[in-house]
Design goal:
single chain; mainly alpha; two-stranded antiparallel ribbon; 13 helices; 69% helix
Length: 325
């Protein structure tokens, strides 16, 4: 096996746009579930809205790239309001079902031919990179060392994504230390007790849904920056990956989502290189294609063990653990 190539490819995922995008989305999910107790299984919908709003703003309306990001954030806020008004009074398990359905509705809306003029239906959108790349502050050339060698465009995408992630982490750190954040934690533990103190629990839940949804939309934008917006990407598996990342790093932690995203994608990349190589060498009695799928089985088993033996995650504290009743 080519261990050098496998390890280089694995190390490259430490700073990949995908890793950063998932870290942003998981940070939003931490606001929803980790701090407020909202069982949201529709984060893929927020990411799709962010990515499509960004691309459509540029391609169909000729808006600057930075305004496209703002529109994506606004679109996520509107989606959170539409989703939250009829659902935030539901029990946690019903909320999970509704949010899964809502994310699928969003994805199917982007694939339908009714909006083909703007969404290009199932083929997705591309060619919206010119404005963002024109704002690149890095001169043409290559940057980095070892497995982390990037062109000026690839470096700009990563730096911009990391800036957004740093801002999101700082906002979460700040607001969760504030009285507003303490109310969210109280809602997570016992919303009836918070309601008895005169707090509008519904309003706080809605604010949490909007804030976390905006972070999810920013994750969708970063996910779309290097290549294209493809609707087949925003399926329920994307949401489940984000949940895995959140539980891995720690649901009610500030840095847990970022750490979880790094660990998750490094492991996925490593298994994607090792398992097919073992199959090609005859060590595994399966085909290389089957070996590539086996990584999802292993990640699923690892998630089960994590939930059983360390449900609070790597950075989590058992006192901050939320059990959905």
């Amino acid at each position: 096996m080519d261990w050098g190539g496998i390890l280089n490819n694995t190390a490259g995922w430490l700073f990949s746009p995908t890793t950063i995008a998932y870290a942003l989305a998981a940070t939003g999910l931490a606001v929803h579930f980790g701090y407020t107790g909202l069982l949201n299984f529709g984060m893929a919908g927020f990411m799709a809205i962010g990515a499509y709003s960004y691309a459509i703003s540029i391609l169909s309306f000729g808006l600057p790239w930075w305004l496209g990001i703002i529109i994506g954030m606004a679109g996520a806020a509107v989606f959170a309001l539409i989703l939250g008004i009829p659902t935030l009074r539901l029990r946690a398990d019903y909320l999970a079902i509704v949010t899964i359905a809502a994310a699928e509705i969003v994805r199917l809306m982007f694939t339908t031919t009714v909006f083909d003029e703007w969404t290009n239906s199932a083929d997705g959108l591309g060619g919206y990179h010119e404005g963002f790349r024109a704002a690149n502050p890095f001169p043409p050339g290559t940057y980095g060392f070892g497995p982390w060698v990037f062109s000026e465009t690839a470096l700009w995408v990563r730096v911009f994504g990391l800036i957004l992630l740093a801002i999101a982490v700082f906002i979460v750190w700040s607001v969760m230390r504030s009285p507003w954040g303490r109310v969210l934690k109280g809602i997570r533990e016992d919303e009836d007790a918070v309601r008895s103190l005169g707090k509008n629990v519904f309003a706080y839940k809605m604010q949490s849904l909007v804030l976390g949804g905006i972070f999810g939309a920013l994750g969708g934008v970063v996910f779309a920056l290097p290549s294209a917006v493809v609707p087949a990407t925003y399926t329920t598996s994307l949401t489940f990956f984000i949940w895995t990342i959140l539980l891995l790093g720690g649901a009610a932690t500030v840095f847990g989502p970022a750490l979880g995203a790094v660990i998750f994608w490094v492991i996925m990349a490593f298994l994607d290189g090792v398992l097919p190589a073992l199959a090609s060498s005859g060590i595994l009695p399966i085909s290389p294609i089957q070996a590539g799928t086996l990584r999802f089985v292993l990640v699923g088993v690892a998630l089960m063990l994590l939930v059983i033996f360390r449900p609070q995650g790597i950075l989590g504290n058992k006192r901050e653990l939320t059990f959905v009743k």
